[in-house]
Amino acid sequence: MTQGNDANPELRKRIYEQMHFIDDLLAEREIPIHKRFMLAGRMFVDYFVKESTFDSKEEFLSSEAYRVALLPIFNDWYWDKYGELAKGPGSDIYCGIVLAYNTPVRILVPATTSRVVEPGKLAKLTFPDRLEDYETIEEMLQTKFDLDKMPESMRTEFKQHSAKIVGLIRSINIDLNMASNLALDAEKLSKGIWSHMEKAANDILTLTSERASIACWDIHIAVEKTLKVLINDKKGKLEHGHNLKNLAESLSDIEPEINGSMFKNLPTDKDAIKLRYAEEIKSVGDAVSYYHESLEIRLFDVGCGIRPLSWARI
Description:
Blueprint: E1 2-3, H1 9-28, H2 33-48, H3 57-61, H4 64-82, E2 93-100, E3 103-110, E4 113-118, E5 122-126, H5 137-140, H6 152-178, H7 184-191, H8 193-204, H9 209-235, H10 244-249, H11 269-276, H12 284-296
Parallel strand pairs: 1-5
Antiparallel strand pairs: 2-3, 4-5
Helix pairs in contact: 1-2, 1-4, 2-4, 7-9, 8-9, 8-12, 9-11, 9-12
């Protein structure tokens, strides 16, 4: 079954004509095959889209029109050329945490959704930044329970909160996968950001305070690396240290909306280090709060072709 959307065959043809050039550039940068299609989409817009109905290329890249109409075409090209090498090692599923009855529950969030357009022939592939109307949180829950047994107000709150978390997880990973034109040091940092969040989620889901405390360290490092990528991109230097407030303040002259107060609900650098070595212990509930807080921290467009490397918009 063909993935994608042939509503605009001329657009598909034009994209395919440029893809060998774009893929060669990404291969020279040693980008893994399964990571290339989002970067290829970004490069196509940068190099070949001269005008659109959007005010800027950044707005276009952030739009549903781009994710629904264009991005699947780049994915198709990589599947056409590389087959299952384009899939990568489990990169299409993200692990996250939601709370049910105040208990952390694992969710597995697909990076893509696929709907059959023409049975046996065509499926429409999309890269959503939210929980789609035709999806349910029940499908993503890895611990099954009957939501109908929840009081109605609790059930409504659970579904709203879970949909928000799914949207944040998808948005963050779209942003990270589309980050381009980074200096080598920043690129290496950016590649590890989400893995810290997944490690934190897995530690929290053990439901032990000791592992949950270690998770707080990984959450801290994920936010820290994001700030360091911003600094490297904006100022051309690699900052050191774990103090989130200091890192944020070093950006305040060029990004005034980024400041130390954004991180007031997260552990300090000294506390995070103690948590890493179990010299200080936090409850599972505290770790979940830090996890959700970190997802909602808004960092801003870091320029140089990055759309935006953010904890996320919703």
